[in-house]
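Notes from hallway chat w/ T.B., transcribed later so I don't forget. T.B. wanted the structure written out for a chain they're using in a teaching module, and asked if we could keep both sequence and structure tokens in one place. Agreed to drop them here.
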Amino acid sequence: MTELKPTKEEEKPKTQEGIPAKTFKGRIRAVRGQIVEVGYDDANALPKFYEILTSAENDKVRLEVYAYGEDNTLFCLSLTKRRYLYRNMPIISTENPIMVPVGNGILGRVFNLFGEPVDNKGPMNDTVPRSIYHDITQEKNVITSQEILETGIKQIDFFTPFVKGGKIGFVGGAGVGKTVLMTELLHNITYKHEGVSIFAGIGERIREGHELMKSLEDSKVIGRVALIFGQMNENAIIRFRVAWAASTLAEYFRDIAKKDVLFFADNVYRFIQAGAEMSAVLGSIPSELGYQATLETEISNFENRLISTSTGSITSCQTVYVPADELSDVGVAAILSHLDAQVILSRERASRGFYPPIDPLASTSSTLNKRIVGDVHYEVATRALETLNNYQRLSRIVAIVGEAELSPYDQLIYQRARKLINYLTQPFFTMESQTGKKGVTVERKIVVSDVDMIITGKLDHVPAEQFMFIGSIADANFEAAPEAQTVQGAVSPAESEKGMTNGQSGSTKSADKPVVNSGDKKTEKTSVSDASKKTL
């Protein structure tokens, strides 16, 4: 089902008598940065808020009405380059707000906020224009799902499962791999996804957008993806509005085409940042830490459009830039409150070469529960997090006195945690040209089984270094384990506690110290004595 394109007569506003209404005409009086003052004579044809004004001399001129002033004056936000504007320039109304093309014709194409293709593939066909502004009076029948959407990325599927219709965020500072992780996710899911994908580039680098387009073309999935960009070279108003335009595309495929949509946004923090710049341009009083007073309203209006209804689902994946790696930043906190899963990227892990550099202890997910992932997955994930937490504690001791000073049991836990951390690294398809390693995907049930083998000690014979950048344990072809051996001196916390209950300290139990052959002691003393005699 597609929308019918209105005729030219239907597009013109009409009065009650059916006579075509007058078109607004005015002239530019002043240009102050991104604020353009437009004067007019006839007050009977005033444009509405958010209506786009242009010029008969240059159709590249686009001004968005945002306020009425005194003395027959309109104040507009400039969506065009300043060099196109001059005083007394004639201005007319388009009688429409910002419109973006929707329909099957946008799939496989790259375009900007105004629907203009930027991929050198010619004009887009089979599309209809649609306003980017959401009708807040329209009711939606919101539906939640518990269906897990597997990404093939081990850390995400294991610690922060991705559910259909949910929202997941990749949160981190500059240069830790947010865009790479999102690109890999887009690559992996689009292969198996039967619906369409929308990618919104909000205030990021042009180079990254170009690389994404080439990556999708090479992987043969660009035909199911529509990409809309408002990059960092654009002014704040375009960067702010492109988020609404992208959500309009997702709403069309969900409500009209009745398809499931994957929505990718890179970067949502730039949307907040553009709103703060707009607020400063308009002279609004800033709120906490310089952000706009309407921060919560703006992010809520955007996120609330990305919901699943009875006609289709919108599964959202968003990157969130963290200024100065400060997660408590007001703008970041406003975004995180809308996410079902927060994948925190660690700069410390990235500096040590662990990719993807996800910090599982800092990451959270409301979907990691028995009802969604099952009892086995939940229990293994809980034990894995406990192991990683113990590793974090032990690593501070190791950094000071060395691993040899740990008790045998702590050494065992420390080594298993190292293997687990190394196992969770993974080569990506989208980075094959940079790393030279072939990308892999691993099913969730296999990851659960592999992690269980690591933390239960079934792979204690394998060095930790061999777990780096592998797929599954089966693909790594590790050598068979030797006969079962008990770790000499290893005492579990429960046994240690039992010993202390009997009046003995865990450190004084015979099992706490490696058993040393008495003959070895004798031999050692003899050799020392012989050496002393030779010296004498």
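Follow-up for T.B.: Residues 23-97 form a domain with the Thrombin, subunit H fold (CATH 2.40.10.170). Might be a good example for the class.
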